[in-house]
# Entry
Amino acid sequence: MTQGAELPRKHLFDMPEGLIYLDGNSLGMLPKAVGPRVAETIDREWGQSLIRAWNAEGWMDLPTQLGDRLGAMFLNAPAGSVSVGDTLSIKVYQALTAALNMRPDRRVILSDSNNFPSDLYMAQGLIETLGQGYRLETVPADDIETALTDGVAVVLLTEVDYRTGRRLDAARITRAVHDVGAVMIWDLAHSLGAVPVDMAVNPAEFAVGCTYKYLNAGPGAPAFIYIRPDLPDDVQPALAGWMGHANPFAMDPVYEPGPAAERFRIGTPPIVQMRMLEAALDVWEGVSMQALRDASLALSETFIAEVERRCLGLELASPRDPQRRGSQVSFHFEHGYAAMQALIASGVIGDFRAPDIMRFGFTPLYLDEADVIAAVDVLERVIRDRLWDRPEFQTRSRVT
Ligand SMILES: *Cc1c(COP(=O)(O)O)cnc(C)c1O
# Structure
């Protein structure tokens, strides 16, 4: 039996009856083991061990221990090079600051004009804080390599575009960035658990990402940061906090960074969320990322073919070449917001991204071919019968 035969693993998830969930790229589904793990963390670890749990239950080590595990499972990164904590936006900020410190003579942060807003906002805010003539330059992702000059200090890119699912050739771009002497930061928010990632063949200095999307660790789950293991120990993290100190309980009035990824820890880690991540990672044990990738592409190819055959007016917004996609498929549709509301009302959950993108995520851990066909059946009805035109689907909520 090949490892691919283990997919999907629906029995490991709490799946609401009658729902087809195509939004695991935004917030993953709840693994069954999470609830009991949370209850145990609260009742036994916190309730009974109290402060002793920092040592007795290993709370203090969780950010690095989970970082090591996540690094080995998804990044092919050695122990010590990954830590988890905080949110992705904060990890972007820390990586940017560290990267700028590594190129003190340069002033440009280069990014993709369609990058996720928070990544761009973090760069803008940091530049204002630094106030030393730094500037953010953005170009479409396809033009990044031609926009590289020796004024560029750092390049910040997201491997898989959140709107279209377009996947970049990360290792090749990193090499081009290094050719002009700049530092590379990859945002892997839509990569981990979606496509194989290998930091041993991608020489980027930093990678960051979140764990609540394809990794299913739940809302507010900790982010991660990877730092290339051979970088010297003088890389300075922004937001130095006591948990990132070489020896937090020395209560030293002067900051001295801890080793490698540990220095990116800031303050007291959210232990309950860390335990949720731990339980979510268990679901991935034994999954081959190549088998997952194959399953993901089979699902998305079926979806595209069926939608194009049956749903007039929807236009593919994702790359047609499967190798250039992550694990999501997007379609332009003029009435995309209302159509998505109508779809959700019929039990098929995807999401909408302005201005006109209907977005569908494919998560082979808990989706199979029959789910995809059933989802298109509903979508076809929404489009054919113009269900999107009903008044109840026109008002926009805060989260789309
Ligand atoms: C989801 C996502 C984020 C979100 O950042 P948070 O701090 O976790 O809210 C940031 N960047 C990218 C590329 C994302 O896809």
Q: What stands out?
A: The two ends are 41 Å apart (CA to CA). The longest strand covers residues 152-158. The mean pLDDT is 96. The first helix runs from residue 34 to 49.
